[in-house]
Amino acid sequence: MKIKEFLSGKRTKVLVITSIILIASVTVGTINYTRITHASAAADESVSMIETAEVTRQDLKKTISLNGTITALDSQSVASELTGVKINSLKVRVGDRVKKGDVIAVLDTTSIEKSLAQAKEALEIAKKKDSLELATAQRNYDAAVETARIQIERAERDAQKADKAYNDAVAASDAANAENSSAESSVNDMTAAASGAKDAAGNAAAEVTRSDDKYSKAQEAYETANKDVGALADSISTLKTDYEAFTKGDFTTASDRFSKAGDDLTAANNALKDAESKKTELDSNPDANPQDVENAQGVLDKARTDAATAQGVYDEAKQNYENAKTKLEGIQSAISTAEGQYEAAVKARDKKEKKMTKAQGENERAKKDLEEKQSALEDAQTNLAEAKTKQAEKEADAKSAKESIQSAKDNAEKAKEEEEDQKRENGKTVADSKDSFSETQLSQGSSTIQAQQEVDKYEQELEKATIVAPCDGLVTSVGVKEGGIYDNGNEIALIQNDSGYKVTATVDQYDICDIKEGMKVTIKTDSVDNEMNGTLSFVSPIPQGAASQNSQEQSSSGTSSDYPIEVSIDGGMEDRLRIGMTAKITILQQEADNVLTVPDSCVQTAEDGSLYVERADLDENGNAVATGEHITVSYGIKTDYYVEVKGDGLEEGMNLVVPSYDEFMSTDTTGGVEE
C-alpha cells in the first residue's frame, strides 16, 4: 500500500470515530457500527468506521407531561353581612357534607334581640302615642313594670350566658392543649424526616463525586489510548516512507549493479573460453606460426585476468544485493509488526471509549439522583417549617384559651353582680315611672314610621344571624372559630361541589402554544391504580396571577410566566379521588400509527433546503457501503429521538447512513412537523 493512500485512510478513520463518540453521547437507541468502503473510493484500500440506522415502522406519540391538582367542579364561599358579633355555634367542620339550606353557623343575637325588643317597644309606644292620651298613666306604669321584668330576665340570661362562656372557655383550653400536643408530635416527625432526607442527599452527593472521578479517569485512559493509536500510525507512516525510499534508492542501485556484474562476468568467461580454445588450437598445430602462438598466449592471459576481475566485482555486487534485500525485508517486518500493534491499540482504545461512555452515563444518573434527593430535602424542610409554624399557632391558641378562662370567670361574677344591681335599679325605675308618667310625651306621625323601620331592620339582622349552606357540597375550609367575634366579609366556610372533579395545572410559556382545548389527556394519581381519561377543557389566554376566573382559584404568588389550564375527567367519578390530590397528566399533542420512522440524526439538509436521507448497502464481503443515493423525505410527527419520514423509495428495514459529526453539524434538520 502506498504511504499517501495509507495516510488518507487514517484520516478518514479518525474523523468517523470522532463522530461516533459525539453522536453516541447524546443519542438513545440502536445504532449499527460497521466497517464501510465508500463506493466513490472503490479503488482505495482504506477502511473507515461510520454509523448506520435502520428504517423502522412503529406508532409515534408527541406528548407533554405536567403535574396538576385534583379540584372540585365548583365552590361557594359562605359569609354574612353582620359584623362585630360573636359566633355562638359553628355547625360544620372541614370534611362535613352539607345540603342546601343546612345551618352552617349561628351568630350571637343577644344585642340584636335586645335592639329588636327596644325597637318593638318604641314602635308600640309610637302607636300608643297616636292612639292614647297622655293621661293614660296606668299603661305607662304597666310598661315600666314590664320593662323592669324584662331587664331582670335579661340580666339573668346574661349571667347564665357568662357561666356558659366560662365552661366553654375551659373546654376550649383543653382542646387547644390537645391540638398543641399533636402539633409538637408532628414537628418531631417532620424533624426526623428532614434529617433522613439530608442524609440521603449527602449520600447522593458522595455518589456524584465518585462517579465524577470514575468518568474523569475513564476519559483520561481513553485519551491516552487515542494518543497511542496516533503515535503508532505516525510510526507506520515513517517506516513506509523509509521502505519506499530504500526501494527506490539503495536497493535498486544494488540490484542494478548485481545484474550488470553478472552480465560482465558472463562476457569475461565467454572471452576466456574463446582464448583458451584458440590457444589449444594453435598448440595442437605443429605448423602454427610462433608469433601467433605468442599472441594467443597474451590474449589468454588477459582474458584470465579480466575473468578474475569480473568474478571479484560480481561477488562484491552479489553481497551488496543480499545485504540490501535483508535490510528491505527487515523494514517490511517492522511495518507488519507496527500494523499489528496499531490494530491492537485501536481495539484497546475502543474498549476504553465504551468504558468512558458507560462512566458518563453513570455520572449523569448519579447527578439526576442527587437532584431528586435535594428536592426531597427541600420538601422535607418546607414541611418542617410549616409544622413548626402550625405548632407555634397552636401554642398561641392554647395560651390564649388559658387566658380566656380567667376572663370568662370574671365576666360570670360580674354578670351576677349586675343582675343584683339591675333588680335594685328596676325597683327604683318602677317607682319613678309612676311619679313621672304625666311628663312623658308620645311622638306623633313620623316617629311611628321610623320605629317600624327599626323593627324591620333588626328582624332582617336576626335572619342573617343564621348562616345556611347555599348549595350541596363538601366543607373544605372553615375560616372562623366558635366563640370568636365575626367581622363583615370574612369567609365563614368554603363549600365545594365534589360530585365531580377536574384537574388544574400550569403550563410554561414554552409549551403553551403547542396545546389547545379538546386535546386528549391521560390522568394518573397515587390513589387510583388505573389511568383515567380526560379532555383539556380550558387553556388560559394569559399567565397565572393575571387571570380572574374565580377568586378562590386565583394564585396568591402574583403574575408568573405559567398559564393555568383545566382538564375534565371523562367517565364516572373514582371513589378514591380527593380534592387536593396530586395528579400526573399527559397531554397528547399528536399521534400517528404504523408509520416509517428513523432517528432524527439520519435526516440531512441539501443545499436547496430540501431534506434527504442517504441509503447504505452491503458489498460482497458483507460490509456496509455508502451508495451515495439520496432519498428526498418530508417530516411528519417528531419526538425527542424518532421522526416520522415520508419519501418515495423509503422502505421498512432499509439501512441509512448516519452522517459524521462534521456533516451533522453542517446539516439543518429543524424542519419541524409537516402540516
Tell me the strand percentage band.
Answer: 15-25%
Largest sheet: 6 strands, antiparallel, barrel
First CA to last CA: what distance?
Answer: 53 Å
Q: Low-confidence parts lasting 5 or more residues at pLDDT below 50?
A: 1-47, 547-558, 671-675
Percent of residues in helices: 40-55%
Rg measurement, Å: 54 Å
Please tally the helical runs, counting DSSP H or I stretches of 4 or more residues: 6
Residue-averaged pLDDT? 81
Number of strands: 19
Structural class, by secondary structure, is alpha+beta
Strand numbers in spatial order across the main sheet: 3-10-13-12-11-14
Could you spell the SSE succession in H and E letters? HEEEEEEHHHHEEEEEEEEEEEEEH
Shape: rod-shaped
Topology:
Layout: H1 3-24, E1 32-36, E2 48-54, E3 56-78, E4 85-90, E5 97-98, E6 103-107, H2 110-131, H3 137-283, H4 290-436, H5 446-464, E7 466-468, E8 473-478, E9 485-486, E10 493-507, E11 520-525, E12 532-539, E13 563-569, E14 582-599, E15 604-605, E16 611-618, E17 624-638, E18 642-646, E19 655-658, H6 661-665
Antiparallel strand pairs: 1-2, 2-19, 3-10, 3-14, 4-6, 4-9, 5-8, 6-7, 8-10, 10-13, 11-12, 11-14, 12-13, 14-18, 15-16, 16-17, 17-18
Short description:
The protein is α+β, with helices and mostly antiparallel strands and 675 residues long.
Plain-language structure description:
The chain has 675 residues and is α+β, with helices and mostly antiparallel strands. Helices cover 54% and strands 22% of the residues. It has six helices and 19 strands. The chain has helices at residues 3-24, 110-131, 137-283, 290-436, 446-464, 661-665, and strands at 32-36, 48-54, 56-78, 85-90, 97-98, 103-107, 466-468, 473-478, 485-486, 493-507, 520-525, 532-539, 563-569, 582-599, 604-605, 611-618, 624-638, 642-646, 655-658. A six-stranded antiparallel β-barrel has the order 3-10-13-12-11-14. A four-stranded antiparallel sheet has the order 7-6-4-9. Strands 1-2-19 form a three-stranded antiparallel sheet, with helices on one face. Strand 17 and strand 18 (642-646) form a beta hairpin. Helix 1 packs antiparallel against helix 3 (137-283) and helix 2 packs antiparallel against helix 5 (446-464). It is rod-shaped.
